[in-house]
Design a protein that fits this description.
Elements lengths: L1 H5 L5 H4 L8 H10 L7 H12 L8 E4 L3 E2 L6 E2 L3 E5 L2 E7 L9 H11 L1 E2 L5 H4 L5 E8 L6 H5 L7 E5 L1 H11 L5 H15 L50
Parallel strand pairs: 5-7, 7-8
Antiparallel strand pairs: 1-4, 2-3, 2-6, 4-5
Helix pairs in contact: 4-8, 8-9
Length: about 240
């Protein structure tokens, strides 16, 4: 997906055109996080640190769109990403301009902490409730998310805000690292983000060389070289057109 977007073979607005449920943020989640499953544990940990600024162990594992169900009910909550690192869980909510729903972050914290995870896949990794949710990161934070983020201040879970501009800056630094898969991934992510208005950042002014010392010389002129300005007449509209 990254290669198609970066080479202008696909555009997000055209991919989702006419779709009833806009999957833009799901596509971003899959595009950015999906490739990490193919990295070794060291490279994956470095990539997640650059994306989220979280200190994770090399054994941390991520799960995309895990479904948590309330006990005895069909009600469910589906975070975008949950990272399990030992006894700690980290939730990532990916945004691409859309608003957060009222109470959405609190529901995710409550569901990952206490609700049932029914899928056989990753069940042992996620473990049984109650679980410790250490952080929740809003990836793609914008000003209109501030109210929902502030509402979580009383939770034990640390709620973090991460803009795409900050991610693009860290991807620029990461792609300088001599790590094949990690470098290739970070380069594609950086190119994708900096090609979009949401993450396009100024890369700094170019270096300017000092001109050094110098002097200015002006040619002398005489009054005969001056061109007279012809007389002009200004006419103003009658008073009936002027508003009081």
């Amino acid at each position: 997906m990254l290669h198609a977007l970066n080479n202008k073979k696909a555009r997000l607005d055209r991919v989702i055109k006419g779709v009833a449920k806009q999957p833009r943020e799901d596509l971003i989640t899959s595009t950015v996080f999906g490739a990490l499953d193919f990295m070794d544990v060291r490279s994956r940990a470095a990539a997640l640190k650059a994306l989220l600024q979280l200190e994770l162990s090399s054994t941390a594992r991520m799960i995309l769109w895990p479904r948590f169900y309330r006990e005895g009910q069909r009600q469910r909550v589906e975070p975008d990403v949950v990272i399990c690192d030992g006894q700690d869980c980290h939730i990532i909510e990916v945004k691409w301009g859309a608003y957060l729903g009222a109470g959405q972050l609190e529901r995710q914290i409550g569901a990952v902490s206490n609700w049932v995870y029914r899928s056989e896949e990753h069940r042992q990794l996620i473990g049984r409730a109650p679980r410790r949710v250490k952080t929740l990161t809003v990836l793609g934070f914008e000003k209109h998310h501030a109210v929902q983020v502030a509402a979580c201040a009383e939770h034990d879970t640390q709620v973090l805000s991460r803009t795409w501009q900050a991610v693009a800056k860290d991807m620029l630094a990461l792609k300088q690292q001599p790590d094949g898969p990690l470098t290739a991934w970070s380069q594609q992510v950086h190119q994708f983000l900096t090609n979009t208005p949401k993450a396009r950042t100024m890369q700094g002014w170019p270096a300017l060389d000092s001109p050094g010392t110098g002097c200015l010389k002006f040619n002398s002129i005489s009054f005969r070289d001056l061109i007279p300005v012809p007389q002009s007449t200004w006419r103003f509209p009658a008073s009936k057109y002027i508003l009081n």
